Fold this sequence. Notes:
Elements: E1 2-4, E2 10-11, H1 23-35, E3 42-43, E4 48-51, E5 66-69, E6 72-73, E7 88-91, H2 96-102, H3 106-116
Antiparallel strand pairs: 1-2, 1-7, 3-6, 4-5
Helix pairs in contact: 2-3
Amino acid sequence: MLHRAVEDYWHVVAGVVEDGETFAEAAARELREETGLDAPVVDVRMPQVYRVPDEMRSEYLTGVDQVAIENFTVNAPAGWEPVLNDEHDHYDWLTAAEAIAIAHWPETREVLASVAAPFS
């Protein structure tokens, strides 16, 4: 889990799909930018849509009320440690239950629980 430096919450790698990118390309780019890891991402086939919270409206284009997201996993090499960009000030390797307990967004908790279920 990554700790967001400015907003002060725990989250996973995330970001915006840029013009001309697929969701998978955006996920791989955000992974590189936020952690330094250059690795293939795997679609967990769990698309989500969430309503933009009122307190975050200023971060979105006028008229954007909801956001579509796709979710991916990645296999990190043994012994690899993230090199964080300025969006994050800390990371922690956690069990699924620990990650779910501290994840800020309910959509993130839902995906983490779904991805971890086969390993429980």
